[in-house]
Write a structure and sequence with these properties.
The protein is mainly alpha-helical and about 190 residues long. It has 2 domains: about 5-65, no CATH class; about 70-190, Four Helix Bundle (Hemerythrin (Met), subunit A) (Up-down Bundle). The chain contains 8 helices and no strands. The chain has helices spanning about 5-15, 20-40, 45-55, 60-65, 70-95, 105-125, 130-160, 165-190. It is rod-shaped and about 80 Å long. The chain starts with a helix and ends with a helix. The model has no long low-confidence stretch (mean pLDDT about 85).
Length: about 190
C-alpha cells in the first residue's frame, strides 16, 4: 500500500496520543481508505484529503477512543462516588463529635492531601481529550489514591472506635464499596495499555 505525507503525519499524531495496537488498527483502516480513494480519484493529494475527511481529524479520533476507554469510565465512577462517600463520612464525624478526637493535625492534613490528589487525578482522567496515556495514568493514580484514602479512613475508624450508628455504617459501606471499585478498575486499566 502506498502512503501519502498527509496520512503519515496524521498517523504520527495518533501514535503520539494512542496505544500502539490501536494505532496499528487505525493505520490499516486509513491506508485502505486511501487506496480506495486513489482508485476512485486517481490523484494522490485528493485521495489523501478524501480519506482523511472520511476518517476524521486526529483530535476527534483520539477523543472518541478516550471517551470509550475503561480508564475514563473508572475515573468517572470513582469521582461520582466521591461526594457520596465524603458526605457520609462528614455526617458521621459531625454527629459523633469527631472534630474533638485526638487525630493529629498532620494526619488530618495527610488525608486532605490524599483527597485533593485523588480528585485532581480523577478530574484529569475525565477532562483530557487528547492524550490517552495521560488519561490512563491519571485514572490509575486516582484509583490507587482513592483506595489508600478509604483504607486510611477505615483504619482510623478501627483505632478510634466511634459509637455505632447508621451514618457510620453507611460511611463504612461506602468506603468498602469504593475500595472494591478502585481495586477492580486497576487491572482493567492496566490491561488495556
Amino acid at each position: 500500500m502506498a502512503g501519502h505525507e498527509l496520512i503519515e503525519r496524521h498517523l504520527r499524531t495518533l501514535a503520539e496520543r494512542l496505544p500502539d495496537p490501536v494505532v496499528d488498527e487505525l493505520t490499516d483502516g486509513l491506508l485502505a481508505s486511501y487506496d480506495d480513494q486513489m482508485e476512485r480519484l486517481g490523484d494522490p493529494d485528493a485521495a489523501a484529503q478524501a480519506a482523511l475527511a472520511d476518517f476524521g481529524d486526529a483530535d476527534s479520533v483520539t477523543a472518541a477512543f478516550i471517551r470509550a476507554s475503561s480508564a475514563r469510565q473508572a475515573a468517572f465512577t470513582l469521582l461520582v462516588a466521591g461526594p457520596i462517600v465524603g458526605l457520609s463520612w462528614g455526617a458521621t464525624i459531625v454527629t459523633a463529635n469527631g472534630w474533638t478526637s485526638a487525630i493529629p493535625l498532620s494526619s488530618r492534613l495527610a488525608v486532605g492531601v490524599l483527597l485533593g490528589s485523588a480528585v485532581l487525578l480523577l478530574v484529569t482522567a475525565i477532562r483530557d481529550q487528547r492524550h490517552y496515556r495521560t488519561v490512563r495514568l491519571a485514572a490509575l493514580g486516582g484509583a490507587g489514591t482513592v483506595a489508600v484514602l478509604d483504607t486510611v479512613m477505615l483504619g482510623t475508624v478501627v483505632t478510634l472506635v466511634p459509637p455505632p450508628s447508621l451514618l457510620l455504617l453507611v460511611a463504612l459501606t461506602g468506603s468498602v464499596a469504593r475500595i472494591m471499585l478502585a481495586v477492580r478498575a486497576i487491572p482493567a486499566v492496566i490491561a488495556r495499555q
